[in-house]
What does this fold into?
Amino acid sequence: MVVHKKHLEFERLNLDEGWEVPEGYPVGIEEKILSGMLKEEIERGHRTRLLRFQPGAFTEKPFSHKYWEEVYLLSGDLVVGSNSQGNGGKSFITPTYACRPPNTHHGPFKSEQGCLLLEVHYFVPI
It folds into this structure.
């Protein structure tokens, strides 16, 4: 299976629409897929997305997945390592970047003021 990304040449993004709550995420955290497609069930593909947290939104448990993940905090704050009630953890502001190999446990996450993240996810062919 070959998954290609569409050629886009500096197209204006409408940040007021096209947001969806990703599967398994709580309300208050939304994604907007910019390009690509990730097929986790067959471990193929790549995607670039924006992920935004509304103020006070948080995840309750750590994440782990089989793909590479690169994350850049574009705006706002992100608390990493909070507990299941959204308390504790270490707070980060921009410019902050993370690069995680497959099967790396990370999170839970929270944003006090809200944040916008740029994420790139991909599987590396063997």
Remarks:
- The chain has a mean pLDDT of 93.
- The chain has one domain: 33-122.
- The radius of gyration is 15 Å.
